[in-house]
Amino acid sequence: MSTDITLKNNFDVPSLSSDSLQVYLNSIADIPVLSAMEEQKLAEKFYRDGDLEAAQSLIVANLKFVVHIAKSYKGYGINLSDLIQEGNVGLMKAVKRFDSTLGVRLISFAVHWIKAEIHEYILKNWKLVKVATTKAQRKLFFNLRKSKKNLGWLSKEETKRLALDLGVKESDVTEMEKRMSSNDVSFDPLEDSDDEFTPSSFVTDEAINPSLIIENEDYESTSQARLLESLDLLDQRSKDIVQKRWLNENKATLHELADAYQVSAERIRQIENQALLKLRESIISKSSF
């Protein structure tokens, strides 16, 4: 078919909102179902001539079937009106692709498109974080929802049986069950909420606080300056021992310094301790000013 159509703009379908759901259901309840012959003639007019009125008649006549399909997905916590709306989009897409010469009724052909739109909407809106991204995960998501007989966790035997029925790993079933059972949490506290324990309360990183960075840098530079001043108070040997034992990247051992100064390792240790004590007293005295 060469005619290109914009489904939502060109097809005049009864409006639907959550406030007018019952009105919508009442408005489509009395729309007669098309016979196979009527459906075929309308489909041919649309396919052959691009008759949008024929396409609209096909859509309107099948709206009640969309409602029937949408109701089977009410257990996902999503408004029925939204599910119906998405199902209607799927019906429109099906009409655009329907070929009456195949000998199949429109609704039989459209079921796939209706469910596909509803599935996509549920997966996008059921949780803030996607629970299923691959084809296999999507299949598991919807089948697991249907297969669970209670609100509790599946037993090991139920998990094994479900995995076998769906042709997936038991670990896949368990992982999907965890995803479906988790709750969304608002990142920031909601208005009129006393809940202070939201994720935003735990992500503050004081390490990148500008005032603390400046304070730490100032402290480090000041401490380094005091250390260098205090080192100058030591004799050359004590200064060299402290430098090689504590400040160099490759620190020397007591025995290496003992060999260098031709004294015992114990004597090097004594010089080191005396030097460190002198450094500590000098730094403390400088800090008090």
How does this model look, in words?
With 289 residues, the protein is mainly α. The protein contains 14 helices and no strands. The chain is 64% helix and 0% strand. Helix 5 packs across helix 7 and helix 13 crosses helix 14 (265-287). The longest helix is centred in the C-terminal third of the chain and has 23 residues, at 265-287.
Q: Which class best fits the helix and strand makeup?
A: mainly alpha
Average predicted local confidence, pLDDT? 75
- What portion of residues belong to β-strands? under 5%
State the separation between the terminal residues, measured CA to CA: 91 Å
Q: Count of helices?
A: 14
- The value of Rg in angstroms is 38 Å
Number of strands: 0
Major β-sheet annotation? none
Number of domains: 3
General shape: rod-shaped
Q: Kindly provide the name of the CATH class of the largest domain.
A: Mainly Alpha
* Low-confidence regions: 1-10, 183-187
Helix/strand order = HHHHHHHHHHHHHH
Helix content: 55-70%
CATH topology of the largest domain: Four Helix Bundle (Hemerythrin (Met), subunit A)
CATH architecture of the largest domain: Up-down Bundle
